[in-house]
Design goal:
Blueprint: E1 2-6, H1 10-19, E2 25-29, E3 42-44, H2 51-60, E4 63-66, H3 73-79, H4 89-95, H5 98-107, E5 115-118, H6 121-131, E6 135-139, E7 149-152, H7 155-158, H8 161-164, E8 170-174, E9 180-188, E10 194-196, E11 200-205, E12 208-214, H9 221-234, E13 239-248, E14 251-258, H10 268-271, H11 276-285, E15 297-304, H12 310-314, E16 319-323, E17 333-341, H13 344-360
Parallel strand pairs: 1-2, 1-4, 2-3
Antiparallel strand pairs: 5-8, 6-7, 6-8, 9-10, 9-11, 9-13, 11-12, 12-15, 13-14, 15-17, 16-17
Helix pairs in contact: 1-11, 3-4
Domain ATP-grasp: 102-285
Catalytic activity: 5-amino-1-(5-phospho-beta-D-ribosyl)imidazole + hydrogencarbonate + ATP = 5-carboxyamino-1-(5-phospho-D-ribosyl)imidazole + ADP + phosphate + 2 H(+)
Keywords: ATP-binding, Ligase, Nucleotide-binding, Purine biosynthesis
Length: 361
């Protein structure tokens, strides 16, 4: 079986690493000449809207998936005329637009912060008057890793904020005084079979995920599974989906979904019986899903901008290095380390060791 992937970044690369033992081959469509996934398969260098090259991809593969939601939904809809594509164009259309996404959560009874659609500075002024400050303004599409958003804390922050974010459609969300940030990685097969990984505690630095720690028997696991299950059924979803939540007053409020394998699920490569990448491929190919159970205590730490010397990373016991083969650049995710330990005390010690190495690099 040959899988087409829209996007050739590290997520596509890790999908191919997981799919190779399953006898799968890969083709990546990505405009970047140095797409890091190209070492794992054919690289079709083209823009995401290039219909001639999209048709070429469709003719070469058995099915198509995508590795990030910056892909236009129109691209997936076009490909769907010629080859199965999972997740669907409709799932992507909703997940990539924060207004559609939040509106879906509200309709499904999933708690969210207050939110408003912003099409102008006048809309922003009115929304701030209604929702209040502090609040977070985000572009409706394309923002990630802290990009395309601004925290509004005082009236002066509101002035000119619409223009500051590019005068594009935005959403204003009420600020959530959360006690923690968690995410749930789920996978749903073509036949509706659904499995969930343990909730993950996430820590961010300057808007970029820095640390994810898989939980054990989290008291909100069942509630998170309920909320995510509602979304999976609503979208008739196929593949892996990540749902990020805020922990608030003993409950959960929705932040956002990602219709793909997700950074906070990288720990599953060594830390779960079947990784998120393996399970995504199983789901879209119509294969039986694998176990999402944890193996030991696990965590993931991102390498941002640069990767520490390989010999120093692998010298840390219980540590596994994943180098993306990307050029080093400030603010760019260029690799990660996963940890799998026998107990939580050892895990915490290993996390501290990796963090010290990152700080010294």
């Amino acid at each position: 079986m040959k899988i087409g992937v829209i996007g050739g970044g590290q997520l596509g690369r890790m999908l191919a690493l997981a799919g190779t033992p399953l006898g799968m081959d890969f083709a990546f469509l990505d405009p970047a000449p140095d797409a890091c996934a190209q070492a794992l398969g054919e690289h079709i260098r083209a823009d995401y809207g290039d219909q001639a090259h999209l048709r070429q991809l469709a003719d070469e593969v058995d099915l198509v998936t995508f590795e990030f939601e910056s892909v236009p939904a129109e691209t997936v809809a076009f490909l769907s005329q010629f080859v199965p594509v999972y997740p669907s164009a409709e799932a992507l259309r909703i997940a990539r637009d924060r207004w559609f996404e939040k509106s879906m959560f509200k309709a499904l009874g999933i708690p969210t912060p207050e939110f408003a659609d912003i099409q102008s500075q006048a809309d922003l002024d009115a929304a701030v008057a209604s929702i209040g400050l502090p609040a977070v303004m985000k572009t409706r599409t394309l923002g990630y890793d802290g990009k395309g958003q601004k925290v509004l804390r005082k009236p002066e922050d509101v002035t000119g904020a619409f223009a500051e974010l590019g005068s594009v459609p935005c959403i204003l969300e009420g600020f959530v005084p959360f006690s923690g940030e968690v995410s749930l990685i789920a996978v749903r097969g073509r036949n509706g079979e659904t499995r969930f990984y343990p909730l993950v505690h996430n820590t961010h630095d300057s808007g970029i995920l820095s640390l994810s720690v898989a939980s054990t028997a989290h008291p909100l696991q069942g509630l998170a599974e309920d909320y995510v299950g509602r979304v999976l059924r609503e979208l008739d979803y196929v593949g892996v989906l990540a749902f990020e939540f805020f922990e608030v007053d003993g409950g959960l409020k929705a932040n956002e979904i990602a219709p793909r394998v997700h950074n906070s699920g990288h720990w599953t490569i060594e830390g779960a019986v079947c990784s998120q990448f393996d399970n995504h491929l199983r789901a879209i190919a119509g294969l039986p899903l694998g176990s999402t159970a944890k193996v030991g205590e696990s965590a993931m730490l991102n390498f941002i901008g640069s990767v520490p010397p390989v010999n120093q990373v692998v010298a840390i016991e219980d540590c596994y290095l994943h180098h993306y083969g990307k050029a080093f650049k400030a603010g760019r995710k260029v690799g990660h380390a996963t940890l799998r330990c026998a107990d939580r005390a050892t895990l915490d010690s290993r996390i501290a060791a990796v963090q010290a190495l990152i700080a010294s690099t």
